[in-house]
Specification:
α1 (30-47) packs antiparallel against α5 (110-125), α12 (224-236) packs across α22 and α15 runs antiparallel to α16 (307-315). Helices cover 50% and strands 6% of the residues. The protein is globular, with a radius of gyration of 22 Å. The chain is an alpha/beta fold. The relative contact order is 0.11. Pfam families: CCG. It comes from Woeseia oceani. GO terms for molecular function: 4 iron, 4 sulfur cluster binding; metal ion binding; oxidoreductase activity. InterPro entries: Cys_rich_dom.
Length: 447
């Protein structure tokens, strides 16, 4: 196949995603999957623009270059799975590099092809104990957050001997940063906000001025201060905040594992609750980009005909996206009391692919004497990829350009919208410190 020609005129249009045909038999058919993998890999081989995004592409290209034919047909099929395992569905190849995405006639959607492969393998083989545990954020969080247990879990995460044992028994790399757990979760801390009515909310543009907060697994059990910071900032700006009656994991960890049935079960619990809030006139925010993306993109592509999924998608916002939309209509307070100095800001991949622009940077830059240096490179974390024994060192290599840029900036603050990405990068910084942009914004307001 010759891949050297110019992109056809249609390819200059904005990329579009096709619905994910995960409920069809062909989606899981191994022969059809192998044929599509070979077709797309051949296109990637002829292009190679994505060689520096993650380790999936170098794995593929190295295998091709080492084969007798130096073409895809010379690569053993088992190597295909090495490529699949190194893809963590960041979506950046689709959104920023590939010239052959739909509506191009070659119809390349590398991330969703990798997802199809993961789903096919999960249906046939299931997953390892390690991968099942790492992706079961609700179960692990409930157990780790038990008051009697939480101190032991957090102490073990900092203990070198315990971490070596964990690596040996479960395959979790001994040096990978692991989040702390809290028994006093964000939902417990903010329970009083369940009573917020939002009667005095002021609409601005497409925003209603009242939001229901989907705290997320991480924001609820691992970083409850994140939800507190969001509520403080939003209420300072006259935005009413409430909590949904219940929530479970958004499903992103299970999606990345290929366990689409588990994603469907999470959807059946979350969507009816959130859709009901939307019908009552509320918007939705989540403080973790991956969770926001799950509701904005992945679930709508899995359920393109589901009206409730569409309602939630249309009402779902990144916190800083929401604040900037309010700012356009004069409803963002700029009564900042404190300078933040220089901020090195890593833009999380799952935020970039939402195509909302650098709203976090724009809001933080409003603080007096504040400079925000945005770094649009991947952290290599992906929630679970970076903690796995076999991928941790690769993930650190992917993060190295970000680390170097942060060090060169010598900032007063380092921040990322994704706390896991922030911890991954901060581990290689001299002071090992990272902050969330919502905490910085609260600091700028002095509230």
């Amino acid at each position: 196949m010759s891949n050297n020609g110019d992109r056809r005129e249609g390819s200059l249009e904005a990329p579009t995603r096709h619905p994910l045909a995960w409920q069809t038999d062909e989606f899981y058919d191994q022969q059809a999957l192998d044929t599509e993998l070979e077709r797309v890999f051949d296109i990637c081989h002829g292009c190679r623009r994505c060689f520096n995004l993650c380790n999936a592409f170098p794995t593929l290209f190295d295998a091709i270059d080492a084969s007798d034919s130096m073409e895809v047909d010379g690569v053993p099929k088992e190597v295909y799975w090495d490529v699949v395992d190194n893809c963590y569905l960041c979506d950046m190849c689709y959104m920023s590099k590939c010239p052959y995405v739909p509506p191009h006639e070659w119809n390349v959607d590398f991330p969703h092809l990798m997802l199809r492969a993961k789903a096919s393998r999960f249906r046939e083989q299931g997953a390892s104990k390690r991968d099942r545990i790492l992706s079961s954020t609700d179960k692990v969080g409930r157990f780790a957050g038990i008051p009697v247990v939480v101190q032991t879990v957090n102490a073990s995460a900092r203990n070198k001997t315990a971490r070596k044992l964990l690596e040996k028994t479960l395959g979790v790399h001994h040096a990978a940063p692991l989040p702390a757990y809290h028994s006093r979760t964000a939902r417990k801390r903010l329970k009083s906000h369940l009573e917020v009515k939002g009667d005095s909310a002021i609409a601005a543009g497409e925003t209603t001025g009242k939001v229901v907060l989907f705290t997320t697994c991480y924001g609820n059990r691992n970083m409850p201060a994140l939800a507190e910071d969001l509520v403080a900032v939003f209420e300072h700006n006259g935005i009413a905040v409430a909590l949904a009656e219940q929530e479970v994991c958004c499903g992103m960890p299970k999606l990345e594992l290929g366990d689409l049935q588990a994603v469907a079960k999470a959807k059946e619990k979350n969507i009816p609750v959130l859709a009901d809030w939307v019908e009552r006139g509320w918007d939705i925010v989540t403080p973790i980009p991956s969770c926001t993306l799950m509701f904005k993109q992945e679930l709508p592509l899995m359920y393109p005909e589901d009206d409730s999924v569409s309602k939630v998608r249309n009402a779902m916002y990144d916190p800083f996206e929401y604040l900037m939309l309010r700012h356009k209509h004069g409803q963002l307070k700029t009564d900042f009391k404190n300078s933040l100095g220089t901020i090195a800001y890593q833009v999380a991949c799952h935020l970039r692919v939402q195509n909302i622009g650098l709203k976090t940077r724009d809001v933080l830059a409003m603080a007096p004497d504040t400079e925000v240096q945005a770094i649009e490179r991947c952290s290599g974390h992906d929630g679970t990829y970076a903690v796995k024994k076999e991928f941790h060192e690769i993930s650190k290599k992917i993060a190295r350009p970000v680390v170097n840029k942060v060090k060169k900036a010598a900032p007063q603050h380092f921040a990322s919208d994704c706390p896991m990405a922030a911890d991954q990068i901060a581990q290689s910084l001299d002071d090992n410190s990272a902050e969330h942009p919502l905490a910085l914004l609260r600091q700028a307001y002095g509230i």
